[in-house]
Input
Amino acid sequence: MGTPKARTGPVEAIRALRVARRGAVKARTAALNQMRGLVAAAPEALRAHLTRVSAAVLVSRCGRSDVYR
Output
């Protein structure tokens, strides 16, 4: 029977970073999908301002209080 691998070192660190990145990408996608869903259900005046904008612009505008500009 062999000795089990140690869960330390650069390979394990890279594995941990990849797991964290994968989770962050999934969370980002879920948040953007939720924001797009809210835009689809928003009143027409607000929907017109937010329907065809990029994800970065959508997040920026929703993070501020001047969404109607």
